[in-house]
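In response to reviewer comment 3 from the previous cycle, which asked for concrete evidence that the modeling workflow produces usable outputs, we include below a single protein chain processed end to end. The sequence was submitted unchanged, and the resulting structure tokens are shown without manual editing.
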Amino acid sequence: MASTTSLLTINVGDLTVNRLGFGAMRVTGPYAWGGRRDRAAMYELLRRAYELGHNFFDTADSYGPNVSENYIADALYPYPKDLVIGTKGGLVRPSRHRWDECGDPDHLRQAVDGSLSRLRVAHIDLYQFHAPDPNVPYAESFGALAELRRAGKIRHLGVSNVSVHQLEEARRIAPVVSVQNEYNVGNRASQDVVAACEKAGIAFIPWFPLGNGRALRSKRVAPVAARLGATPAQVALAWLLARSPVMLPIPGTQSIDHLEENAAAAKIRLSPDDLAALDSKR
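The workflow returned the following structure tokens.
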């Protein structure tokens, strides 16, 4: 099995991947809770994502919990040589609607071992600390992951849902190759973090890359999409790719039709006028 679409590439540490990845949260049940009855369809979706050129998959132990990682392994193991899997730990799911921070070092050690087992790998390509825990010093949480990196269980480390200050704190402990924060055409609150990633040569992985329906229907996005004969979602993804060379969007879906629509965004080239319209505050 080989990926078929030629996309722009980006380095995540010493790993090179295409700049449009696949977010695997939505292959789980509603609210990222539990598995799915149509499990075979999700396996087909994951395989098709790789065939379309998405050779970076983003997941987390909290998706399901544990379901997304298992599905990736069930669908794609033994993995293609160019497939890079990034997973995360540091959020726990006591119930369907809760995402609780847990940066306890012992929990993170157990979380890494669990991900290794579910993904069926000897080391994790990219492991990201999912969210700072207000009850645990950040250095203790990230320091535990740095120890696991030195032990060979993790190849590269990343952070998620962080400020510039927290990113710099993590970088003082161990090399950081990625940041995963919310960022999209309708929410640019992490622009300072994007700028810090550009300066340091760190991949920025925007979660919720399509934002909400309101942003996609806005006076900024809809006219550009109509002019290009593209969908608003494609324009929103193309904007992210044009926004910064360190951007690695990870749109997710449960639909192969939507998957193929999203993949086509890599071929869209926005003009300076398009970018100016999308960057406006209208």
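The domain at 15-180 is CATH 3.20.20.100 (TIM Barrel). We consider this sufficient to address the reviewer's concern, and the full set will be provided in the supplementary archive.
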